[in-house]
User: What shape does this take?
Amino acid sequence: MSTPDREPGARVDYKALVEDDRIHASLYTDPRIFADEMERIFHRGWVFVGHASEIPRAGDYVTRRLGAQPVIMVRGREGQVSVFVNRCRHRGTMLCPAERGHARTFACPYHGWTYDIDGALLGVPYPGGYAALDRSEYGLEAAPRVSSYRGFVFASFAATGIPLLEHLGAATRLIDRSCDLSPTGEIELTAGWVKHRCAANWKVLPENDSDGYHLGFVHLALFKTVRMQYQRVVGDEKAIKAVVRDWGHGHIEIDWSPGYQGPFEWFGGASGPVVADFVAALERRDGPELARRRIMQGPAHALIFPNLFLGETNIAIVEPVDVEECVHWHTPMFWAGVPQFNGRLLRMAEAGMGPASFLMPEDLIVAARNQQGLRARTPEWLLLSRGLNREYVDEQGRAVSHVTDETTNRALWRHYRAVMTEA
Amino acid sequence: MVSDQDHQAVVEFLYREARLADEARYAEWLALWTDDAVYWVPASTDPAADPETRISHIYDNRNRLETRIKLLQTGHRYSQEPASLMRRLISNIEVTAEPDGELVAGSNFILAELAVQARSEMHWWVGRTTHQLRRLDGALRLRLKKVVLINAAEPLPNLSFLI
Assistant: This one.
């Protein structure tokens, strides 16, 4: 029996727990595995922190958690974005409790140590108590690697490793697909975040966000009540045209667009002057043909490993809390320069995501039931084989399959296994 | 100034509305609302938060409010299937009258929710509510309900019951 029972301190054998077509239940329940993930995925790896539009001016900041670590993402005096550990170098006190704000300095409430927005230690009260304190050695701890793509800021606490663009690979095109729908090419995350608590292991969220199989069941209440863009995935299996796709490096996508029959299906249909103005702006930039392709296809529905979910017209973050708890953050993805259009995106965000919405409460209650079921010691394995009989590799080398297939889950776990076992 | 009679009518309305929500009596609860209903639960405690630019947990007009109720009535709204067991206490009620005759009530609440849909968990919801009430055909009806949770900006569990 390949059992999760190990001697204390023994290393987890991830190759034995993650097979190509099945995974071991302990991956969702073992606190030692959670600790390994915080180190390997959320500390060393590239992790999404926030978007540059959240901190437009020097001194603007937001606080987040990367894994369990509290961090501050702040725009510095030269306009650069830094990610600092939210902790005073003296006695470890969390510096900044606010979720967002504007600062000229960060002052520790404990003994008054003060830092500037570029992380430099400015002042130490009563310096006579130190023979020689070199302030340059005690600036805020900064993530050694911070990099962004189209305003999406990622950080890694490993000094060396692959560059962000290599981590994203071909998946930059998914981010492009969402941003290019903005008439200026810029997105703005300015509506604030809703945080939805989930009583399940964090990996359930990226898996569910890219699962096309559950919709007609988990969201049956909604399908019975209103027409929506996912309607065609609750029909006959052979008639469903939407696909799932593996973009490599754990980045995975549901592409609904092959099933769309007209423009703006992802927007609940197109009518009225708000949409006409938006289309006119896109056409001025892209010409009618490319503009039409964009509004047919809509924004991406994709998970950028490990914690950024491009949720069509929303941006979401997966935040691990402990082995049986996580938080799903979301905000509507506003496009620069079209305020009325954004007003509808705001109402769509409230309908789709968050604790009082019409979709996510069902996802998260099923996730919580998963977590309860996974506490059972037997059976040990979860199936991951759906679609192996029909998935294919496209001309760009990506695995593609029917939208209800587990191609996405397998891609996620394959990358997970690589990250958790690399030297 | 609000007459004793109006004050008493508002208090009775608040208690009745609370009981219908607690007991998941969806159709009766929906019947309390006007056609120009606004049901608003901000995702922030900032009193200046504008629902047209800042995200809310709930910002329903009549149409969306009806959808919310229909979902609950399908029997497949699994986040409320079975419905949470709830009781809320309402207190610190202050009633004022608008020049157009609408009555505005501010009140505090504590709501105990036993969420029974996965593992039974007790959730506590605390906040201040504003009810805007209008008299229609002799009866008070609800035009606006705004619920500001003290933890509106924190991670919240499912809020698919009627708060």
Observations:
- The mean pLDDT of chain A is 94.
- The interface with chain B takes residues 99, 190-197, 199, 218, 220-222, 224-226, 327, 331-332, 343, 346-347, 349-351, 354-356, 358, 361-362, 364-366, 368-369, 371-372 of chain A (CB under 8 Å).
- Chain A has eleven helices and 23 strands.
- The CA atoms of residues 308 and 317 of chain A lie 5 Å apart.
